[in-house]
């Protein structure tokens, strides 16, 4: 499989108790335009050979912040989970690494990538995402939030169309 047939990315999950900070993807985005999602940035296939080594992920998150979040200082706290799937509208093999992150100051969204941000519970996310496609990042976060006791059920099931 060539790199053109694959997409690799890091996903930042900023959560406080049952609330998670979601961003609405710009309509200009190639993948999942207009969808409520989590902040992300593509990485090279071999950029993070060991996702559990948080230090390897920091440069990608700094790049994400500089490009998409107004350069807001970002802290990467924990590696959560990785997943891979080819079940998506892009018809690509997607490999994602999710990390717990935090910002010291509120990020400024670059409207080319994200147009809105909102703290939401799982139930609020379910409502906001009605009729939207759910990608691998939300499938992974849904399971993690449930396993961490932040949601009463995996919530992407309701959002998956």
Explain what you see:
- It is a single chain.
- This protein is an alpha+beta fold.
- It has a single domain (3-159), classed as Nucleoside Triphosphate Pyrophosphohydrolase (Alpha-Beta Complex).
- It is built from 4 helices and 8 strands, in the order βββββαβββααα.
- It has helices spanning 54-68, 122-128, 136-147, 156-159; strands at residues 6-13, 15-16, 19-25, 36-37, 40-43, 74-85, 93-103, 114-120.
- The strands form 2 sheets. It has a 4-stranded mixed sheet with strand order 5-1-7-6, with helices on both faces.
- Strand 6 (74-85) and strand 7 form a beta hairpin.
- The longest helix is centred in the middle third of the chain and has 15 residues, at 54-68.
- The radius of gyration is 15 Å and the shape is globular.
- It starts with 5 loop residues before the first strand and ends with a helix.
- The model has no long low-confidence stretch (mean pLDDT 90).
Quick summary:
The protein has four helices and eight strands.
Identify the notable features of this structure and list them briefly.
161 residues, 24% helix, 4 helices, Nucleoside Triphosphate Pyrophosphohydrolase, 4-stranded antiparallel β-sheet, 33% strand, single chain
Determine the strand fraction and express it as a percent band: 25-35%
Please state how the strands of the largest beta sheet are arranged side by side.
5-1-7-6
Helix content: 10-25%
Low-confidence stretches: none
The CATH homology group name:
Nucleoside Triphosphate Pyrophosphohydrolase
Shape: globular
Rounded average pLDDT: 90
Number of separate strands: 8
> Count of helical segments?
4
Specify the structural class. Answer: alpha+beta
Task: Determine the N-to-C terminus distance.
Answer: 28 Å
**CATH architectural category:** Alpha-Beta Complex
Structural domains: how many: 1
Q: Name the helix and strand elements from N-terminus to C-terminus, one letter apiece.
A: EEEEEHEEEHHH
